Fold these 2 entries.
Entry 1:
Amino acid sequence: MSNTYRDSCGAGLENEEEFVDILEERRRSSDLGHALRTFSPYPYKGAESCSNADLNKAVLESQYLRYMAKEIAAETGSSVEEVREEACGILEEMSQNLQLKCIRLMGFTLSKVLKRLYSGIFVNMEGLNMLQQSIQEHPVILMPNHRSYMDFLIISYIMFTYDIPMPFIAAGIPLARMKLVGEVLRRSGAFFIRRAIGSDKLYWAVLSEYVRTIVKTGIAPLEFYVEGLRSRTLKSVMPKLGIMHMVMEPFFKGEVYDITLIPISISYDRVLEESLLAHELLGIPKPKESTTALLKASKVLQEDYGSMHVNFGRPMSVRHLCEGKINRCQYNLVPRDLPQKPSAEVQACVSWLANLMVRVQEEGSVMGPWALMACLLLQAPTIVLTEEGLPWQELTDKTLWLRKLALDFGARLNWPSGQGQAPDTDVMSSTVALHGSVVNRKAGRVFLVQEEEPARNRPISPEEEMISTAAAVLMLASYRNMSLHIFVRPALLATALHITKTTQKDELFAFFCFLRDVFSNEFIFIPGNSSQDFEEACFLLKKCGAVHVSEQEVTVSDAGLEVLSFLQALLQPFIDSYQVIFRYLCENEVHVYAEKQFLTAVRNLATELILSGELHTYEALSSDTHKNVLSALQRLDTVTKSRASEQNEYTVNKAAVRRIDDILSGKIPPQMLHTTPEAKL
Amino acid sequence: MASNSSGGSDRQRVAQQRLRIITGHLQGREDGDSTIIAAECKAGSQTDVSREEGKTVPRRRQEIMKWNGWGYNDTKFLFNKKGQAEFTGKRYRLSGMIIPALKEWFEGTFGASMQHKSPAAPVLNSGAVQPPTLNEAFLEELKSTGIPFSHDAEDRVFRAHGHCLHEIFALREGKVGRVPDMVVWPNCHDDVVKIVELACKHDVCLIPYGGGTSVSSGLECPTEETRCIVSVDTSQMNRILWIDEKNLTAHVEAGIVGQDLERLLNESGYCTGHEPDSMEFSSLGGWVATRASGMKKNIYGNIEDLVVHVKMVTPQGVIEKSCRGPRMSTGPDIHHFIMGSEGTLGVVTEVTMKIRPMPEYQKYGSVVFPNFEQGVACLREVAKQRCAPASIRLMDNEQFKFGHALKPQVSSMFTSFLDGLKTFYITKFKGFDPDRLCVATLLFEGGREKVLQHEKQVYDIAAKFG
């Protein structure tokens, strides 16, 4: 089923060495010259030339919006004119106003900033060339992952440098509210989307018509983050389907022959806002996006952030991907311009595609040595890291071992090439030096960096100390997350082997599916691909010699213990965190929780458990994990969400939660799993 | 033929249908050339639509419509105490008016006598209706679907017939034959799918029922049928689902009756242009199932030209085309066995049909000919030159006289003077024999310029013949 995309990304791996540092050129020649270069892109050949004002007019006067305005007017009892006026206001707030002058200005500033921040920005030229080609043929959708604010303009910057039409970029509305910056972004092609718009029919209508019109007319490539938001944990986020659906509709309705999706993986050696993210996860609110905050943050410019990789994936044809997945006949019978509820088939297809895109982004991302080292550092007890430190030699040896494993599993590694032992250690020490904000190396040992309290007049309480350790651990965890997609499938199998203690393939598969199901908010799995995922896990473990796989059985080899225990330890923090929450939900008397209450209560419980030494993972403090658990339980129909007076409330089916917890801790043998509906999924 | 008719006979049905059209022509002002009488008329003013609150057809149709005749309960012809013919009700332009010439025409043409009366059976005698043969299993499952149904005698008898002469005559005499055992009122396409599925499962007969104006005996229940017969009344499926202003099509549920469809479309500035004489009561699904033709088909086409897409529920499943194109150059057209199938193949549930912007200008006119032959010759010439207006109809002398007989009493001296002058001009000046002359009625539609030009072309032809 998924062969189509396998072909396309398998091919990508071979071109690994094609990355070119675009900053090198900038360091040699004038930035001003770059900013004023003649920009002569080859646009989409079917594009109608159309100014931004024309675009807005086309949206407002579309039959779809007229129809919706009439319908909404009838529902709300206001006049059609009022509704249309409101729509006009929404569009004004939303729409981009791309101007080349502004791009040049941005280009100039970005050149300066990027050179200061990064030692190199590596772009794969092959991908860029393919993009240039496909942009002329069909409407193109650029789909980068979203790890940092830096993502935002880097694509436009590259497009400008290489004469590719400037994209329109979907951005969150808070950016628009920043003084000056909002306007600059708007003129650089950003359009702004409000959050939580599901219930606002008119807003939805205007946005979808706007997006569709861009795709349909092909006036510019559209760039949007399928993950919907910046990943706080540097891990891929379950894709959001709203915009994805709007983008696909012109194809479904036959308004365009094809749409080309370009997965783009942006990876950083070090993320600009690393500590902000960690604090946010601990419940300290993120600073509001404002211009003053941005200026204050300019001190981050003084640090070194290593290099950045932008990997343009192979263009993917929607037409090709959807073949056999969807019957577009259903769109024939209703006029294109009228709203139509997507059928279950369409929804499944869009969700599949969105997940697929995130997977391809993951596969295209380039991992540095730091991601591997983070995995290993996290597996050492936290107390060791803070108090006595991890021996440097042990860490480097393990890292080299892990590098081999990762390459076996097909990872793209950014490991500056060198022969022999010495350059490798150099690479690792420079990596550690780069991440001085998280770890430091003293006397042959590696320590976790604890935040310096500005004024240490009073002895710090254990809670405060814990928070500062937790922040460092979560930063480390984030970097580990960058490598998780490589290991997660074998790791699920390793965990299944560990918990079930069985060698029967079908039992392992059932448990594998169960784990996959529980954690599918945590890691990206393509819906319906569970057996492929299982096969892949078996194949990879067999490849590295950890298991023997036969028709019926999966048995652990003697040499495989090291690999398996590493993989299983990799997932352990997630399992522990989930179990803390499951137990909290089961043991409490109440059945209904308000969202805010729940989050604080779980955090307090985790803090307590960590301090008492019962829980070893600080990751249980991450609000991201808490939210994922809630979503997972909702997906598994054990928790139902309801809205009561501005707050989300959750009703818990304790028996069902307890059952999941029991399976997870191995209390229910895997033979029993066949009867559970989850396992079948 | 009964003299004191309450609007039951077939002939009167036809008369009433013609009324609206004829009055449009005959009441017109005199024009420069007095053989040609033209009248301007705003679209849609033929029937008074203000009485409509929402939709026309209730589930219990007998509450507003005659159970044994055409049309509404409150609208009928009768002879008042003075012995003058009168048209009752308030619905039409003619309503409440005295029609002085009708009695004379009646007696003259048919030799009818006011003394001879044969009143219709006033109310339905429930005893005459055979008790329903119910299929219990079907009934049980139908109940669980929540689709409304009834086996009330009045409901059943109402749906046992169309408007053929013999059908209405039998009802006037209180004779009721085999009637449906049950009536169901599906609310949407999916309801019909459920009903048909259940009917197949439990071996129940279905007879689709739209407006009930069929004159092809399509609604008659076979007398030898012993299984349960269920009449599927589509009257509650009467919504316009969407209007596509780009392609000028509308997607409509098949139960909508003509007047509602036209009125709702008019609100958005559109019309179908399909005006069969029965359009007050006949339904869209019925038009499709009986291959209906409309008065203005010269411009808009017959139902087969108007229909773009049909959804029909058959015992084998739902049949529909997978596109909205008006025609395809491949294969036989499935619409052509759906249209005219009289409900024998399935229930038409949703139809996409062409719509047009409402005509900017409408003009009525008529041409008088000395005899029928001349009239035919003129119409042939019009056909030959392919310049037929929206509607052109030639009435023979009998119909012309009947039309005259239906003229209401005029109050003003001036109007009656003009009428006299007109008659004088035609009979004395032109020398037409009143017992031979006949008239063609015309309706022009379109842009003002075009209509005037078209009108001139037709009248130029007519001048050679009349």
Entry 2:
Amino acid sequence: MSQKKSRSRGGGGAAAAGDDHEDLARPPPLQAVLLADSFTLKFRPITLERPKVLLPLVHMPMIEYTLTWLESAGVDEAFVFCCAHSNQVKEYLEKSGWAGRAGAGSMAVTAVESHDAISAGDALRVIFERGMIHGDFVLISGDTISNMSLKDALREHLDRKKKDPLAVMTMIIKHSKPSVLTHQTRLGTDEIVMAIDPETKELLYYEDRADNSNLYVTIDKDILSNNPTLQLHNDMEDCYIDICSPEVLSLFTDNFDYQHLRRHFVKGLLVDDIMGYKIYTHELRSGYAARIDNFRSYDTVSKDIIQRWTYPMVPDVISNRNCSESRLHRQGIYKASDVTLSHSAQIGANSVVGSATSIGDHCRILNSVIGEGCTIGKNVVINGSYVWDNVVIEDGCQVSNSLVSDGVHLRAGAIVEPGCVLSFNVEVGKNALVPAHSKVSLLPQPSNEDSDEELEYADTNSGVTDSPPFSSMRSNGDQATVPSEEDESGTSETGTCGVVGYIWTSGDAGILEEWRQSIAPISKEKLEELQHAVSENDGSEDESNNPTLPDKDDSSDSAVEDDDLISKFEKEVEETFQRAMGGGVNRDNLILEINGLRLAYSLQHADCAGAVFYSVMKSALQAAQSTNDTLLKTTAEALGKWKDLLRNYTKTVDEEMEILLKFEEMCQETTKEFSPLFSKILPFLYDTEVISEDAILRWAEEKEHADESDKVFVKQSEAFIQWLKEAEEEDDEEE
Amino acid sequence: MPDVQPLVSDFVLKLKRRKVEGSHAVARQTAELLRSVVSQHRMGSSANQAAALADAVRAVGEQLIAANPIELAVGNVVRRVLHIIKEEDISSTAVGIEGLSVTVDSDDEYDREDDDRPSLSAAVLAAHARNALRAPSLQTLLEDIPVSPAISRTASSTGDSDGKSKSAGDKTSTRKLKHDVIAAIGDLIDEIDSCYEPISEQAVELIHQNEVILTLGRSRTVKEFLYAAKEKKRSFRVFVAEGAPRYQGHVLAKELVEKGVQTTVITDSAVFAMISRVNMVIVGAHAVMANGGVIAPVGMNMVALAAQRHAVPFVVVAGSHKLCPLYPHNPEVLLNELKSPSDLLDFGEFSDCMNFSTQDGSPLLNVVNPTFDYVPPKLVSLFVTDTGGHSPSYMYRLIAEYYSADDLVVRRKSSA
């Protein structure tokens, strides 16, 4: 009797307590879609073997943070969309106990698998087809770390939707200042320009690929005329947490060309005023949210976690279910209880050392995260690096600002320079030097870069991931031979033995991206360079703003003014061109419009040719996925498509020359991505008859007398020019 | 106890995620959870029922304490429950041998009475049961003198009673043990809930007419204490230090003004400047340690030092669930928690100071946001608990009445 009574009392008490803290639980359960695939290649080569969401971030897989946050934010049901490496994700969900956990108060996690999806848009279309979402849902990617309370944002969203059913999405944004020098956020992404209505918080304009070479933002006139007030922000960070209405899914299905959540969906919705869908923003005031997009943000977010901005998601509070507790010591040092630490070893501030790791004499660990089961020898210096589990680092190694994956073996005296990424089970030989910003993997770099998905490698890799025999075999037999096959320039300066594994060439958009998005801090020289560039920019801006108050002599002033005019003209042509690309404006009309613009700016026909060419190349660059091969391909496509248009402006040799000069200028200044491709694109221009051989030869001739720096591209395309000359001579002879 | 496991893991998760915070809420929910653990526990036919039950509680308690070691109230309640089991075991053994005697009457009391006397008398019982180890306390001297003969008989007989109780350990006695334990835990919950009343009853004795009281942050116990004094028509003024970085003092100021108390809000840093005008400092605590030291919201040590400098009495009000039998060996590291720096700084405003890409990779800006301070016992003038006022040097004895010495480390014995 009394037992029963007390049981019911106990149960009632627990339920009451539950109600107090779960006030988000409402009749329509809150659902969440978690994309366990980033649909980018930023974390290659590591993501060839393990999906990004399972990469450890301060000892815990990223997805664990996301799921934990979703659960604590009151989400009742979460769908994990897995694509590449779906088996690994599903296995993790089961092993960690997220999947198949039903019951009051806990979040149900269901894995959704699809191998066809190659973008976030595809994923949402799959979700829609399966009909799993019934109400408003949270859209999040599996690499988002947050501790924010969703309550306010959710209430705002629902209230707004009641009043206006067209308010389909609420984006969470956070105040964060981008760097003045690099024009990127602290997470290594480009700064975003947003226009927001200060009253309603409606998002009016979104541009995440702000061109930082010219400091312009172009906003449609309609936006300005329709909204009496608007705030322009470049100090907001997109958290990539969205509260969406179910309509969002059907919008993705209706517009099957929507791939990217921001670049296509958000921009598409903002431009499209027929349907009138609206996107709103919610600014995060207290709380933390950030998405790990690249290695730079991996570094930044790790440091934020160590500095406890993500509390309670910090290493000493939530720990992985199977590993032992780590404790916070002074100066932000987190240490597991069973670390073997030499007395003479020194662990600096803001470091994390995982369980069962041993650290030898006179080691210095600074600002680093060391995983579990690592063995670190004597006199090792690890600075600002992320060392994952079961890594062996022998005596005297130096690792700075790099990422060292599971099972890597650094033999004695190896040096890993800043910005390196060593993928799984890579071995670095004795006294070898891994040059800065190199990416090393046991898997070869895929040659066909045009496919975006990591998907197709999923099957081949599942076998490789955990096969120690493979690596050990290689280390015994191939150690001497393999390095010689590798990138010669990379290993030429290494010591006696090189690196077991393939050093990936940094094809991805050249040197530029490398310092932007690596773990290593930007080097001092680079910073000075940027500082210099900024001060120069400021100077020129001042001049152009105050043309009436020239502080230089008149001739340069007029030149500046002239340049300014041309750049404005180019800008307009580019926009016109882009509109034509998007809306499919008739080519004749386009020519008409451009001609109109030319008259308005009273410029030469030649300027027009340059501007149009610039726009075409620009469009190719935007369509390309930042690798040289694809860039070449898209450029070829764009040129093929618009050759008629270009030909319309290249009636004389002068105009063709203008195009060549413009192209050269672009390669040197604005769009350096093209510079390695100059010699490859030039023949193509010739083939499509945009530029005649006369123009090319004259250009080469003119350049002969120029200084060395100007001749870079002539030299690059020397072979082609030579060929042209010979062909001409042959023609002459025949005649 | 398969049925309670979901409840336990749910609560563990809540503690881990810091969804349940504050010693009162934590203590209450722990007690409720342990009550359902006890009620779901299947009493086997093993020889020692009480030990099995204690083991079950210990197993759960261990998980709970590990989930959030900073919430000392969890451990306190677990130890209290273990102590209750021990007491009930002794008393039921006593019943088994002595027949229906005084202790049975007190069992009936459990069902009827709501005040804390039964559990106290139970404490007395246990104290007497092990009286060889312990000197008589003030509590036992004042109360329950008629009980003691029965107890002393019990105590003398427990030594050889084990064998007999096993043979007499029929189903009724085991069920009775469980029933008694559940009832006692129910009393413990009531005690936790109503701990403010006996404390605030003492308010009029401590707060005199036209006095100036200083407090820091917001403590519910302090609030009730001041309310009670106000209700008794005392007129006094309160200085509230706002209690950065959470500024709970602002909330308290609002609440006090609603009750018509003269209130002045000051910054934490103004405490020293104002302390010379203050007659008494009354503050709450997160936990009271066995040495009489106090774990309290951050900034408290400064207030205590200021009070000592100007010889102002420093009074700590705390319910008995905050009494912790542990000693603070390493308070800076072990018994503190660093919260998110976002309480202190606006992330967006300082984001450019944390741009690691342009700062050579090492964070130059560090923000530390500790939650608690440790106030050493020599700075505390008086503790006001639900059993009355005590000096810091007496705390260890008070604590000894609530907990048994062998429960200080909550760990499953089965593993040993």
